[in-house]
Amino acid sequence: xxxxxxxxxxxxxxxxxxxxxIGGLLFGYDTAVVSGAEQALDQFFRSAADFTYTPxxxxxxxxxxxxxxxxxxxxxxxxxxxxxxxRSLVAAAVLFFVSAVGSWRPESGILxxxxxxxxxxxxxxxxxxxxxxxxxxxxxxxxxxxxxxxPAKIRGTLVSCNQFAIIFGMLVVYFVNYLIRNQxxxxxxxIQAAMVSVGWRRMFLSEAFPAATFLLLILFVPExxxxxxxxxxxxxxxxxxxxxxxxxxxxxxxxxxxxxxHAKTERLFAYGAAVILIGILLSFFQQAIGIxxxxxxxxxxxxxxxxxxxxxxxxxxxxxxxxxxxxxRGKLNPSPMYCPMATSTTLxxxxxxxxxxxxxxxxxxxxxxxxxKVWSALGFSCAYKNAACSFSLVSTKGxxxxxxxxxxxxxxxxxxxxxx
Length: 420
Fold this sequence. Notes:
Helix content is 72%, strand content 2%. By secondary structure, the chain is an all-alpha fold. The chain has a two-stranded antiparallel ribbon with strand order 1-2. The longest helix is centred in the first third of the chain and has 32 residues, at 118-149. The chain is elongated, with a radius of gyration of 22 Å. The relative contact order is 0.15.
């Protein structure tokens, strides 16, 4: 027996987790890519001759991926059970790639290239919704895969890396959008004209490269031991566990998995109504504070504050860096979190909507002083986890299963009795 078989390979485990984490990065990438392109999209579709592109239409176009998030979140549990965790991630990667290429060229070889029209708008939104389905799948299946492949003692740490990858994916796409825009011309007028013609297309296409990388790498990772055991492939499950944990520990973990293979169906509130209710409300209020407005319209917000086009894109990158710093501090030490500065922005979404931090300030005022910093930072840094709530209240139906799963997992992990 080799040393790896005796003690397991930490490098092998980390390589698997890093591949799965790319799904989280793509979650953030797909969510925030529209921020750099939405103004050019607005100008492009306003040139259409067969329909009038209204502010409502633009609001829907900018956030249409959220419709897919609802669908993907609702289907994630079923697909993970029927297809397996690995194949569900393959499906998510394919959706990310198809969405990126389709959003780049929504004409699909059928419609005239470069001519704004209502069919082209519908085609673009369909591709964005497909990407949203990938986001919904990745948001649920990536942490599930990482949790089931990881040893119990470091499971929480590795799963939390997925959340960090989401924020990092947003930072990456902010920077990529900035670079794409700066390569389009030498003057502001030339850059703006190029943004309307090809710039927004390149921004969406940029997602195809990490999506293709994710699709290629995910083919080489194993299925999770738990799903292999659930489907009767005990020998294969034991091989994966041995390579990760070592032979002796692998047998113990596999025995524990087999004990829980035939899980009994529990009541909805088996872990208490408060746990489920808090999870649902957190998901809802994370979006109700208006975080997606910042994600989708950051450059426009900065321009309205007086920044030039180039400066607004650069400030969006800085905002992404701040998100990374605040999220990192929150994971390392949750007590000294920073309270985000209150801002107020006017944007169009089916008319004019005023997003004001006074609402969140009022809610924070209801909390004890010692809790206000923590909850204000949580509302800012965790708002990306469930993106489905901001477009429609109906989306809570799609978020609720994932919410229950995550809050349940947190509770079990905190007691160190999580299923292997």
